[in-house]
Amino acid sequence: MAEPAAQAVAPRAMEPTRDLGATLPDLLEVLLNKGVYLDLDLIITVADIPLIGVNLRATIAGIETMLEYGMMRSWDEQTREWVRRSVSRHLPLAEDEEIVMRMAGGHRDDERHGTWRPGTVYLTSRRLIVWRADPKEVLWQARLEDVTGVDLRTERSIGGEDRVRLAVTTTDGTATLSAAAPERLHGMLREQGIGPAAPARNPRPESAAHEGSLWYQEQLASGPVWRGGTAVVDRAGGVTWKGALDQRPAVRLRAEQLLSVDVESGRTPAGSAVVVVRTPTGGVRFAAQDPGPWVRALRRASRAARPELSAGAGGKP
């Protein structure tokens, strides 16, 4: 007796599956790091009548993964060239110098009372630069080959907030930079082979030796102007002053910069006494309704950093 012919088994349609343990971050990690290739033929029917057909061939992945597999290289080269031309209109670059990273930031000029100068931080294939667009000026720069170390340091702002700064050590000394994303910039510099094995952060600063309201005479092109604000003399002897609308301190002095503290007569919003702090670059003028505590705190800081100075320099409040 002949055996019945075997019936062909129709392939089962693909059915979606669901992993209850998978999350959105897992999906994003697969898409960005490994990528997904879609080869899809889709027919949409209504009442068994085919209405819409979709033929889809697509690759979805992170840009780095795309470039690694040789995709979108033309777009990448064109984009890099466009960015380079756009930046080179303002920031002078060498012929083969490329922008690796840019972000808002600034440089602390310790030679001018520790004043912060805002700008844009550029990490290029050759240099680390702090650039100000208006007026056009390189606030600070160093060749990567001259950078010997980079650390993250936590400082307390005059408003009492902790700020992470970037301390860059070069063959010429150490510079303090601010950045919108200091940890990211630090990581990029580490990838260049710069810096210690682990970031070093300073311990939290001690409480202030004296703080309160204080007027500061700012030197403008139109003439000196008194500004009200808050000042802090910390226990390390440093002095910072910040205006009510300032995001960062306008004055920052280290203890060793306090050469002398004098009291002079003058017209101020707080009275007739002007507290003059002599520094290597000139005098900084403050005023307070009760200047006595400020003078004593400033002189203690000056004596601690410079024991050879006389405690009685200048007039008495």
TrEMBL record:
Q: Which Pfam families does this one have? A: Gas_vesicle
Can you list the GO cellular component terms from the UniProt entry? gas vesicle; vesicle membrane
Q: Which GO terms describe its molecular function?
A: structural molecule activity
Main localization, broad class: other
Q: Which residues form the signal peptide?
A: none
Q: Where does the record place it?
A: Gas vesicle
Task: Tell me where on the tree of life, at the top rank, the source sits.
Answer: Bacteria
Which UniProt key words apply to this protein? Gas vesicle
Q: Does the record's keyword annotation contain Repressor?
A: no
Family, per entry: Belongs to the gas vesicle GvpA family.
Q: State the protein's name.
A: Gas vesicle protein GvpA/GvpJ/GvpM family
